[in-house]
Amino acid sequence: MEVMMLLVYDQPGVMQRVMGEFNRKRINVETIVVGKCEIPDRARIVLSIMDREKALNVIEHIRALQEVIECDLVDHSRHEAYALLSSKEGLCRLTGSVQEVEEIISKSQPERYIQAMNAI
Amino acid sequence: MRSVLVMKGARAAVELLEKQNVEVMFGIPGGVLLPFYDELVQSDIRHVLPRHEQCAGHMADGYARVSKKPGVCVATSGPGATNLVTGVATAFMDSSPLIAITGQVATHVLGNDAFQEADSFSLMMPVTKHNFRVVDPKLFPETIKKAFLIATTGRYGPVHVDIPVDIFLAEITDEQMEKEVRVPKPKRNLEGLLDAIKLMENAERPTIMVGGGVTWSRAGPEIMRLAEMLMAPVVTTLMAKGSVPENHPMVLGVCGMHGRQVANYALNNCDVLLAIGTRFSDRVTGKLSEFGAKTKVVHVDIDSSEIGKNVKGRVGLVGDAWTVVNALIAGLQKRKKAPTWRQRIIDLNKECSCDYNLKSEPLKPQKVIYELSKNLPDDAIVTTEVGQNQMWAAHFYKCYGKRMFITSGGLGTMGFGFPAALGAKIARPKSVVVDIAGDGSLQMVSQEFATAVENDIPVVVALLNNGWLGMVKQWQKLFYGSRYKATQFTVPTPNFVKLAEAYGAEAIRVERPSEVAEAIQKAIKSDVPFLIDFVVDPEEDVLPMTPPGKTSADCIMGRCPWKGGVC
């Protein structure tokens, strides 16, 4: 899994433009986190995609976008998963290794859940 | 205390365009553009009114390709914007600097499906270099300035600005008008320069391939200097036709699917390929895995995202063609020359210059191109439509001196050539401008005869009329067992002479080879738009042709007499 970090202008339309590039290149984004950051009027996007070759292929196209200030692949040593589960017993929040989180989800069979990948 | 001067957004828009030295704009007004057009009444900017927004885009594009300045086109909200999309996408694929302005419904109803509302911001996004939707009048002046900067910084491209009607009515201060803007300069990366020079110095069969980037940066003379130093032949893509003189013995003409065989020969038999300002389109490479498999490639492009996009793992240099070629010239020390290769190429190039002065009847399209090539002045501008007409022109027309060749290479937009010719003529009124057209393409934009006559833009339309969507027919014939479907225009096809005359243009029909030259001479002297309806042989195909996804070994030769061996 590859993790990509972008610094972008914090304004409407930016996500559409960035995701448009992934769409055109037929790249499925596994997880995406967007938020304000240490620089005013800027936002960071951290996203992960499975295929390294595809990541390298799209990165220059992302950098060419006017609203993208930086775009790089981020080094990471391990993957974690984060999940929110909803079942009869109530809500439950999980973090841990990908394997652990997946095991708990399959055992507890929640009515609804969301699982996000996370790289450290 | 200094008083704050204010003006209406519409007035600001006009002044901003004037400050960008916009001389002409191509547009069709509409409800939401009325405040803007009201201010244009008092402006010196020439306004041309096309009969369809798509043609406004193509006209601005043709103007930009000749003047190398951004062309400005304007359309109203909703259908105006959707019609404009094709024009903008055409410019995008060929990296042409365009400023596309669309009106939009007022900000307070945006997103509510107001009358003539379309999400043109989203529609234009994937077909522009960048686009803006102005929602804050304070940012309006800097947005317009940014649009012009972005269109002409680095790799050229169209920029779209969507302007809601209330922005035209809002108050803009002179402080906002004065605000300076900057956009990041494109990064150059010449780290591979020494590797590239080493490769070229040691090449035994060097070949230079130039693309549209060379046309835009006007690096033709420098390319020719480099070619002389290396004894390397120069092959062009469709987009680079005209950037180097095609009457030079080492310039081999257009390569690719319908290219000249000697050009494809050089591409496939060189040991080092210096590719400049080209994105290795599939129409050039054929089967990508075979392209340059045995060749060392140096790839020069202003856009870093092009390096390694199609042809991977080669020496890449990021910079504009003119700068990089000059750096290469300066760096070449040991000028090991390749005289054997040079001589072989010159001999093959002579052989490849076949006689296409075909005198048989029915009239052959090659004969028309032959006579155009012979009879047009040295500063003529040729535009083409898309299809067989385009490929015959690319293959057989000789572009040298100040001649220019303007065509929709990337998007392949039928109906591009005629409006682009009008834009080109406005940019260079003293040059003869000829649109080499097909009857399929011309019928998509024939209403623009009205624009040509009304605005006194005397271009020539050389119509190769075979009554078919010829290129599609050719593919049906070659690859679908001659099962023709929806490619023939059934009789009666329009009488193009009467059509042109109905708009106030002049026109003649030509059916005999002996009448071609005289008709061309008459047309280029005309001071009104002039159509020549060349009734050509519908059985004639564009050959040679390398089938899509194949290599030159599979080339269909037709009447091409090439004997230089498998390319």
Protein topology:
The complex is a heterodimer of chains A (120) and B (567).
Chain A: E1 2-9, H1 14-24, E2 31-36, E3 42-49, H2 52-63, E4 68-74, E5 79-87, E6 90-97, H3 98-108, E7 112-119
Antiparallel strand pairs in A: 1-3, 1-4, 2-3, 5-6, 5-7
Chain B: E1 6-8, H1 9-19, E2 24-27, H2 34-40, E3 46-48, H3 53-67, E4 71-75, H4 79-93, E5 98-104, H5 120-124, E6 130-133, H6 140-152, E7 159-164, H7 165-169, E8 171-173, H8 174-178, H9 193-201, E9 206-210, H10 212-217, H11 220-230, E10 234-236, E11 251-254, H12 261-269, E12 272-276, H13 282-285, E13 296-301, E14 315-318, H14 321-331, H15 339-352, H16 365-375, E15 381-384, H17 388-396, E16 404-406, H18 417-427, E17 433-438, H19 439-445, H20 448-454, E18 460-465, H21 470-479, H22 496-502, E19 506-510, H23 516-525, E20 530-535
Parallel strand pairs in B: 2-3, 2-4, 4-5, 5-7, 6-7, 9-10, 9-12, 10-11, 12-13, 13-14, 15-16, 15-17, 17-18, 18-20, 19-20
Antiparallel strand pairs in B: 1-8
Key traits:
heterodimer, A: 120 residues, alpha+beta, Alpha-Beta Plaits, 2 domains, 4-stranded antiparallel sheet, 3-stranded antiparallel sheet, 3 helices, 7 strands, elongated, B: 567 residues, alpha/beta, Rossmann fold, 6-stranded parallel sheet, 23 helices, 20 strands, 37% helix, 16% strand
What kind of oligomer do you see?
heterodimer
Q: Tally the helices of chain B.
A: 23
Number of discrete domains of chain B: 3
Classify the fold: give the CATH topology of the largest domain in chain B.
Rossmann fold
Using the 3D structure, state the CATH architecture of the largest domain in chain B: 3-Layer(aba) Sandwich
Q: Kindly, what is the distance between the CA atoms of the first and last residues of chain B, rounded to a whole number of angstroms?
A: 77 Å
CATH class wording of the largest domain in chain A: Alpha Beta
Shape of chain B: globular
Helix content of chain A: 25-40%
